[in-house]
Specification:
Layout (H helix, E strand, L loop, with lengths): L2 H4 L5 E7 L4 E7 L4 E9 L7 E6 L4 E6 L5 H14 L9 E8 L10 E2 L2 H9 L8 H14 L5 E5 L9 H4 L5 H6 L9 H14 L8 E7 L3 E7 L2 E5 L21 H8 L5 H10 L2 H6 L4 H9 L3 H25 L4 E5 H6 L1 H8 L11 H5 L6 E2 L8 E4 L4 H16 L1
Parallel strand pairs: 1-6, 6-8, 9-12, 12-14
Antiparallel strand pairs: 1-2, 2-3, 3-4, 4-5, 7-8, 9-10, 10-11, 13-14
Helix pairs in contact: 2-4, 11-12, 12-14
């Protein structure tokens, strides 16, 4: 190998998304934004743990089942799989590890190199992200132990939404109480909203600073955002991911007095109400299914319970489109993304139906086409573009991580 090749800067980024019982990962080469390996470790801490690893340079996929005790064991197993493919964590081509961190509060407005102070602040935010931040911290600390010499970068779900004006971010409660307990609207899915709004501008042949976009991230978790000239000015999720759209198992927007009623009249505990609203509501709570494909199948068979669940889902979605149209004043595009947004043509059609007066329409033939590339599904000459833009949160995390490491080098 020549001296020139040896001295080439490292370009690989490992992206880790550590959940409470899982680790998703991707290894990317930012020289050309290509994926080298992807994988998932699930059911960590159980006897039935499973690791699925795919090396994209060879096309090989390997699966392992058996107990994986904790996140440290999970990441060591991931490191072993990468090493088998010649892509190990000890590679001099690895520039950094990028971590998805769900909640950064108002303290973190951009990707951040992780040090003790950053870890302490993420830990202080656990009360507003009790399910996510502890798992994210575990992933960071384990990765630090495996590669203490390597830059570890936190990319926050909330960061993209920190540009919201106070009029959008504040709840109408006593500011002193709100500030004491860090109560405000933070928003989530930020890496997806950032990526999709930017890719939508590119699809239109414009710079992000020139366009206003309503982004609809529709998966099992779902959120909407109003993006004005590349900056988020409103988003549907709030202090937690519970607020906003109807989701797979979450209720979304709800009169707060429902909680008091369930406690006083229903005799339910705080934990029981929490479980109801986060895990037994939304589409699942309405009809017993949170898979949109199954719901559509049931509708086609005449199931009225599934039809009502779908109609409630669409009604809420349509309200947010209209609300964010009003917030932005001018809308250049509405972009659908994530599992439901990218794949469920009936959802897109129903959400836009009746909004012709706002310049929105869907071409039935274009909407029916399934493709992996960003595409327009609105009729030619439509005043407002309607787009399907596949999200790529891992690429966004890797891009932000690599840009920060390059800047600091």
């Amino acid at each position: 190998m020549s001296d020139e090749l040896r001295s080439a800067p490292p370009t690989r980024v490992l992206v880790l998304n550590s959940g409470s019982s899982s680790v998703k990962y991707q290894l990317l080469d930012m020289g050309d934004s290509s994926r080298l390996a992807v994988g998932l470790v699930e059911r960590i801490g159980e006897q039935t743990s499973r690791l699925k690893h795919t090396c994209l340079t060879t096309g090989d996929t390997r699966e392992h089942s058996g107990p994986i005790a904790d996140h440290e064991a999970a990441l060591k197993a991931v490191a072993e799989e990468l090493t088998r493919d010649g892509l190990g964590l000890d590679s001099p081509e690895l520039a950094a590890i990028g971590h998805r961190v769900v909640h950064g509060g108002m303290f973190f407005t951009e990707p951040t190199v992780i040090d003790d102070e950053v870890l302490a602040e993420i830990e202080r935010l656990i009360p507003v992200a009790p399910l996510h931040n502890p798992a994210n911290l575990t992933g960071v600390r384990t990765a630090q132990a495996l590669r203490p010499d390597l830059p570890q970068v936190a990319v926050f779900d909330t960061a993209f939404h920190t540009t919201m004006p106070e009029s959008a971010a504040r709840y109408a409660i006593d500011p002193k109480i709100a500030d004491r307990h860090r109560i405000r609207r933070y928003g989530f899915h930020g890496t997806s909203h950032a990526y999709v709004s930017r890719e939508t501008a590119r699809l239109l042949g414009k710079d992000p600073s020139e366009v206003n976009v309503i982004v609809l991230h529709l998966g099992n978790g779902a959120s909407a955002s109003a993006v004005e000239q590349g900056r988020c000015v409103d988003t549907s999720m709030g202090l937690t991911p519970l607020e906003g759209l109807v989701m797979g198992t979450r209720s979304g927007d709800l009169d707060p007095a429902v909680i008091f009623h369930l406690a006083r009249v229903g005799g339910m505990s705080t934990d029981e109400i929490d479980t109801l609203l986060n895990k037994r509501s939304g589409l699942f709570g309405l009809c017993g299914d949170n898979d949109m494909r199954e719901i559509r199948r049931r509708i086609d068979e005449g199931d009225e319970e599934a039809r009502l669940a779908f109609d409630i889902y669409i009604h809420r979605l349509k309200k947010y489109i209209g609300a964010y149209y009003a917030v932005l004043g001018r809308v250049d595009a509405v972009a659908f993304t994530a599992g439901v947004g990218e794949n469920a043509a009936p959802v897109r059609e129903a959400a836009i139906a009746g909004l012709e007066g706002l310049g929105l329409a869907v071409d039935a033939e274009l909407n029916a086409v399934h493709a992996d590339e960003p595409r327009l599904i609105s009729p030619a000459g439509a005043r407002v573009a309607v787009a399907v833009v596949p999200t790529d949160e891992e690429l966004e995390i890797a891009t932000q991580t690599y840009a920060l490491v390059e800047k600091n080098s």
